[in-house]
Amino acid sequence: MNKKIVQFLKDAGYEANNSEPAALQLLRYFEEEYGVALLALIEREWIDEQLHRDLSGRDFAEVREFIDDQYLDKFDRTLARIEAYE
Q1: What region, left, alpha or beta, does residue 17 occupy, with left being phi > 0 and alpha being psi -120 to 50 degrees?
Q2: Which of 26, 47, 60, 66 is the most buried (most CB within 10 A)?
Q3: 65-73 average pLDDT score
């Protein structure tokens, strides 16, 4: 894959930097060429995927039995807000 990326960058007239990974250079190319902040978008999507995976597993609800009674109402309200996010 790296060879294909490097070849693409050469064909596009982009100065390749051998000290950086090819995938990072490809991201930079798109950012410079099209003004798109791809790295920020990828990070945001990754975080959203992690949250969805973690929250859809209902991991937080499983710890409810370990919460002190005085905090249960607050904990339940927090879970309700998290579920609304899903």
Answers
A1: beta
A2: 26
A3: 89
